[in-house]
Design brief:
2 helices; single chain; mainly alpha; 0% strand
Length: 56
C-alpha cells in the first residue's frame, strides 16, 4: 500500500470512528490528525530501518 493510499484510508477510518450520531466530530482537530498519521504509519510497509518490525 502506498503512503497516499494509506493516508486516504486512515482519514476515512478516523472520520467514521470520530463521528457521533448527530454527525458531529467528537475529537479536536489535532487528535484526529495524530490518529490519521498513526494509522497511516501502521498501514505502510517499513522502510527497512527496523528489521524487528513485523508489519506487512
Amino acid at each position: 500500500m502506498t503512503r497516499t493510499e494509506a493516508l486516504a484510508l486512515a482519514q476515512q477510518t478516523v472520520s467514521q470512528m470520530a463521528t457521533n450520531q448527530r454527525g458531529y466530530q467528537d475529537q479536536p482537530l489535532d487528535a484526529r490528525v495524530s490518529a490519521v498519521l498513526r494509522i497511516a504509519n501502521y498501514l505502510t510497509p517499513p522502510t527497512g530501518e527496523n528489521t524487528d518490525d513485523d508489519r506487512t
